[in-house]
Amino acid sequence: MNYEEALAWIHGRLRLGVKPGLKRMEWLMEKMGHPEQRIKFVHIGGTNGKGSTVTFVRSILQSAGYEVGTFTSPYIEQFNERISINGMPISDDEMVQLTEIIIPLANELEGTELGGPTEFEVITAMCLYYFGFVRPVDIVIMEVGLGGRFDSTNIIYPLISVITNIGMDHVRILGDTISDIAYEKAGIIKNGIPVMISEDKKEAVEIIEEVAAAKKAKLYKLDTHFVISNHESIEDGERYTLETPYHIYRDLVTGLKGTYQAHNSALAVMVADYLKTYFSFFIEPEHVYEGIKNAYWPGRFETVSEQPTIIIDGAHNREGIEALTKTLKLRFPKNRIKVLFAGLSDKPLQPMLSLLKEISDSLYVTSFDFPRAASAEELKAAIPGGSGYVAEDWKAWLDGQLTQMEEQEILVVTGSLYFISEVKKYFEITNV
Fold first, then answer.
1. Overall fold of domain 302-430
2. Which site from 274, 343, 364, 385 is most exposed, i.e. has the minimal number of CB atoms within 10 Å?
3. How many CB atoms neighbour CB 385 within 10 A?
4. Residue 307 in this model has a pLDDT that exceeds 90
C-alpha cells in the first residue's frame, strides 16, 4: 500500500457518515491492546476555538522542552497534520503503517453487529495506537471531533478537560438549544478530573456546573477563577494580563490575532499552570510568555498577503462569524472591507451572511468542490435583500483581486475550514 492508497481507504470511510457512540472505539482499543491507557492527555472540546487552544497548550509545553503530540481536525494544509508531534505532521510512511494496522481490524469490526468504523473513528484509533505504541511522547493534546459525550475521542481519561465555548452548531446531532449542546460538550468531563471553561452563557454554564458537580470534577471558569484584564488588540496579536490561582502574567502577547484568542490562550495558560502545580511539569513563566507568543495555527485570522491585505479565517458557524466581524470592526474601522464566503449547506447560512453583510462594503459568495458545499446560488439567495455578488470561479476571482484591490481595501476570505484549506493552498502555489 502506498500513501495515496492509504488516504483513499481512510476517506472511503466517509460513506459511513457520523455514527455517535463509543462501542466501536472500545472494541478497537481492546483489539489494539489499549494504547489509550499508556498516554497522558489534555482533552479539549467546545464549538469554536478548540484548534487554537490546542495550539497554545502545545506551544507552551514545547517551549518548556516537552515533546507534545496533538490530534486535531479538520486539516488545513495536509491530512497528516491531524496527528502531529511538536506541530510537525507524521510522515507519509507512518500514515501508511497505521492504515495497514487498522484495515484488518476495521474489516473484522464491520462483520459484527456494531458495524464498521467511521473515518473519524479510524483516524482516532490510528492516533492512539501511534502515541501509545509507535511514537510515545510526554503528553498528547486531543481535540474533540463533534460534541463530546459520544465523540470517538471520549474513550480517553485525561489529566485535564477543557471546554472552549458553546454555540449553535451541528444542531441535527447535538440538539437545537444551547443547553442541549452544552450537555453533549460536557460529556467529556470525567469523574474527579478538573475541567476548565471559557464559556459565559448562563444556560451553558449551568449545565456544565451540574455535570461537573455530579462527577466531583473541580471547575475553573474564565473571569471567575482565572481573570483577564487590560486586554487590547495590537498589530501582532492580543495583549492582556491574566491572573490565575497560581500566578499573575502581565502583558501576555498572543501570536494569533482575534479578540477571542485572549480567551483561548488564557485557557491554555490555566492548563499549563495546573500541569505545573499538580503534575510536576516544569513550566516557568518565560515558557508561558514564549509559548503564547510563538503559537501559530493556520487559517485563523491569518494574513496571507500584505499588499494587498488579504486575510483568511475559518469562521464556519454563526459564533465564528460573530467573532470575526467583531475583530474586523476593531482592527479595521476605517478600511473598506470586501468579503468572499463559501459554506456548507447544513450551516445557518442566512444569519452568517447577514452578519457579514453588515460589516462588508461588498459581499461575494462562491462554491467549492466538497460534498456538502452550498452552491453559490443558494448562498446568494440567503443574503438578506439579495444584495451580494457571485464569484463563479473563486480562483480566477482571487487572481483579479490581487491586481484590482485599492490601498485601503481589506479582502477577507472566510467560511468552511474545508474551503479555507483550498484557499490557503492556492495562495501558497501562487506565491503571494
1. Protein-Tyrosine Phosphatase; Chain A (3.90.190)
2. 385
3. 7
4. no
